[in-house]
Structure formats: structure tokens, C-alpha cells
Amino acid sequence: MDTWMRFMSSDGGIVFGRVEGGYLHEYASLDHPVPTGAVLSTRALTPLAPCAPGKIIALWNNYHALAAKLDKPVPTHPLFLLKPAGSVIGSGEPIRRPLSYAGKIVYEGELGIVIGRRCRDASVEEASAAIFGYTLVNDVTAADLLNENPHFAQWARAKGFDTFCCIGPSIVSGFDWRQGRLVTLLDGVERQNYPLDDMVFSPAEQVSLLSQDLTLEPGDVIACGTSVGVGSIKDGATVSITIDGIGTLSNTLTAVQAATQTAATIAAV
């Protein structure tokens, strides 16, 4: 397995590459993975989300256990919504509560598929070859907004706020998702622990079927959906999502008051 990360350098530039032994072996880009020859110490770099997706496709009802708990039929095609690119943050960055929203905010620990090549109307075999690797996703939701308007379910608004798509800390190629388990901790207490092989649609099936609806581009992320154990996050709480072999994605929900005070302090300087 290879571990890939994306960083900001001291001069503000963005570098991407394979990480080994505390060093980044730089590559041109995710969609053009050719080594540049540069080797950089990760201690001198600031971690970012491991890719910059043009779109994030987030699945719903893609685990048998959750479908059974919700008494929902297993879908025949992936059920999905889109999250905007501007909602992406990396591990360690704060989830910011919207100033206009005081309701419940929910975490969802998920496996993420990272696309490595343009993909349209792909067979399952072609789709498998188009997967660059796997990452972790926290699909954050302002839950009270979903059904605020009885005439229109607000999936895009509820899940599309800035910082509501946590991705990271890395992309791992060659990862055997069938052997993986996802564990979510909320302030150190286990809330989710489920096997990835309980998925309704395998990663290759997801890519193949979704490519019949949308052209998938390099760097796009498919959040594979979550299973049982979803819950709410209080202001100041930290959500940590782990899959052995990929790492831990950890983010803290920043309270409105703290965010407002920080902004006011900066403005006063």
C-alpha cells in the first residue's frame, strides 16, 4: 500500500505526493502521478485535505445494517447527493457551526473513494481501475434543516455548508476495503464500529453506476455512506474516524461564540 498526502509549503505552494518515513516524495499531481524528483520533510509542511475534489458524491442507505434498522428497502442504484467543493476541510481543521444555525449537527463516518482518472459509462472492471485510492470522510449535516420546509427536503443546504465535508488524513492506494472496519469516536467514546464489507454496492460498483449518471473526474470523492451509530456533535466536541491502514480523521466542532470572538479579535488588530 502507498500513502498519498497533500500539503502547503512554507511559501504557500501546494505539493502532493507519496509519504514514506516522514518524507514526501513529490509527484506532479493526482491525475498525473509522475515523480518530480523532489523529496521534502513533512515536518516543514502543513497538512491539507489529501485531494481537492471538484465534487463530492455522498451516498445514502448503502449499508445493509442501517437499511434494516431504518426499515428501508435496499436500493437498486446508489442513492446520492452532491456536496460542494467549498465544504472540504482536512484533518485537524475545525468544523464551523454556521452563524445562522443553532440546531443539531450530525457526524457520519464513511469510507471515501478517490477517483484517479476520468470515468464515464464505465464497466465494473474499468471502474475498479479508475480508483486512485481510499480515504476517510466525515459527512457533516445540519440535521434540523433537512425537513425544515415540509415541501422540499433540503439535502444540499443541510450538508453543503463550508467545513461540512472533512476528508483525510491521506489517500491509500492498494487498500483492501473488504477487510476494513470503520470506528468513530466522539470525545473518545466509541459511537460507530462497522465492517466495510456490509456495503450494498462495492466501491467498483459505485463508480461504475455513478459514472452512468455523471462524468467522474480525477480527485472527485465518493463518500460510500455510513452505517449505524450516527449521532450529534456538541460545540467543542471532537469526532475521530479511523480505519486501520488509512489513518484517523479528526475534527472539532467550533462553537459559534468562539468563532465570533476569534473574528472580532482579528478585526480589532
From TrEMBL:
Q: Which domain of life is it from?
A: Bacteria
Tell me which UniProt keywords the record has, alphabetically: Metal-binding
Q: Which Pfam families match?
A: FAA_hydrolase
Q: Give all residue intervals belonging to the Fumarylacetoacetase-like C-terminal domain.
A: 55-253
**Any one Gene Ontology molecular-function term assigned to this protein's record:** metal ion binding
Q: Which InterPro entries match?
A: Fumarylacetoacetase-like_C (IPR011234), Fumarylacetoacetase_C_sf (IPR036663)
The molecule here is called 2-keto-4-pentenoate hydratase/2-oxohepta-3-ene-1,7-dioic acid hydratase in catechol pathway
Q: Which organism is it from?
A: Paraburkholderia bryophila
